[in-house]
Amino acid sequence: MAELRLDCLGEACPVPLLKTQKKMEGMKVGDILVVEIDHSCAMKNVPEWARKEGHNVEIEEVDDGQWEIYIEKTK
Amino acid sequence: MALKNNVYYKKFLKEPWSYTAGAVVLAALNIGMFASTGKPWGVTSPFATWAAKIYQSMGGHPETWAYFKSAANAEALKNSIWLDLHSVSDIGIIFGALLATLLASQFKIKKIKSVRQVIAAILGGLLMGYGARIAFGCNIGALFSGVASMSLHGWVYMIFIFLGAWAGSKLLVKYFM
Amino acid sequence: MSEVVQKSIKTNSKSKKKVNQIPFGVVLLIGLIGFGFFMANQSPKSAVMWVFGVAAGFTLQRSRFCFTASMRDPVLTGSTSLTKAVIIAIATATVGFASIQYGAVIKGAEKIPGNISPVGIHVAIGAFMFGIGMVIAGGCASGTLMRVGEGFTMQMLSIVFFIIGSLWGAKDFGWWTNTFISKTKPVFLPNLIGWAPALLIQFGLLLALYILADWYGNRKSE
């Protein structure tokens, strides 16, 4: 049950989602990935992708225009 | 502050709208522009006008180019940008987006992170600027308004913008990530 | 968007104390309205476009609408949500556009209104260049303007070069006109095949593309 972090601050679409997809591949079921983003579109498309894949997702706005997306790998 | 927890504040101003809601509102706005001014929405023509105005102020003579000989372009170059309808809407887009970001309390200056982003911004900007001039528009003027105008050039544009995006995606993954 | 997960997976929350930006937004809104009234005195048409422009920017940002992603995401991430949204936008706009155009035709307009431009190899080359550029720069024209408003320095740089590129394109436009564009002409589908077939083909193609996008989007997530 590891918790990994992925720093995507300053990255524009589609880089955050591509990095997240790649990182998730190498993770075990139950692991949690925290994606740090400040791209307003990524706070919509990263969770959308993760939910579609069936993972558990939570978003937190940690600062003005900056989010952390928690993704728990479920399969 | 109570407003921040208000359910309608969250729904309309804080959380993102669905893509479909955006699509329908943008279509309505485009129809509105077409109906009220006689011209559908376009974004990129003003960029050439602005650049030409700057070039003129530096002593250049873009008014002798074939592009600025056409009636519409010549008029846009001669008049104030506040009389050029799409210049006005372009500036409006910037302020509308700023307004939406501030009302959601999500404004943040996002700094450039790396040299590759600088190169990407320069190359991408030049390609789009040049491409939009010879294709008669951008994703708004040629794709959105062009296809909706039932013009064949809009459909041709759609096929090749997709091929371009495919090639761009390969380049992005290879060099800009 | 539902954020309900049975058990919270968030660990140590490091939420900072945020600045409330809403008052700045309200002040900006008042300023934008005031500027609109000022402009209405000079040129009513400009004021109308000001309102439409601000509304469009607001909508683009609120819905995270992105024409670039509609073309790029199917290739890169397998998502077609925005592709479908763009098809819906085009189809909805067609209803209004066709009505305006048909109205103009029965009133005897010589030139059909709308964005109807010459079609030829220049459109293919220009669109291909634009497609590469928008993916690399992370936004097309409307997307770049919207992101400038959101505070992205990368897009502020890209718009400067977008403007320079436009000047370059305008300078070479004469060559493109002589070599290619002058040999082509605009094609308005209803003039080519008639109104009813044109509308049938238009909506038929858009529906087919929507179904294709939906199928592709679902297939990728398997």
TrEMBL record, chain A:
A single GO molecular function term of this UniProt record: transferase activity
Keyword Secreted among UniProt keywords: no
Endpoints of the signal sequence: none
Domain UPF0033 as annotated: residue spans: 6-30
Keyword presence, Transferase: yes
Swiss-Prot/TrEMBL keywords: Transferase
A Pfam family per the record: TusA
Recorded family membership: Belongs to the sulfur carrier protein TusA family.
Name of the protein in its database record: TusA-related sulfurtransferase
Organism of derivation: Caloramator quimbayensis
UniProtKB/TrEMBL annotation, chain B:
Protein name: Uncharacterized protein
Protein family according to the UniProt entry: Belongs to the TsuA/YedE (TC 9.B.102) family.
Pfam families the UniProt entry points to: Sulf_transp
InterPro entries referenced in this protein's UniProt entry, alphabetically: Sulf_transp_TsuA/YedE (IPR007272)
Entry's transmembrane regions: 16-35, 87-107, 119-142, 154-173
Keywords: Cell inner membrane, Cell membrane, Membrane, Transmembrane, Transmembrane helix, Transport
A GO cellular component annotation in the UniProt record: plasma membrane
Location in or out of the cell: Cell inner membrane
Bilayer topology term: Multi-pass membrane protein
UniProtKB/TrEMBL annotation, chain C:
Alphabetized Pfam families for the sequence: Sulf_transp
Keywords: Membrane, Transmembrane, Transmembrane helix
Organism domain of life: Bacteria
Membrane-spanning parts: 21-41, 85-104, 116-140, 152-170, 192-213
Keyword Transmembrane helix attached: yes
Protein name listed in UniProt: Uncharacterized protein
Natural source organism: Caloramator quimbayensis
Source organism phylogeny: Bacteria, Bacillati, Bacillota, Clostridia, Eubacteriales
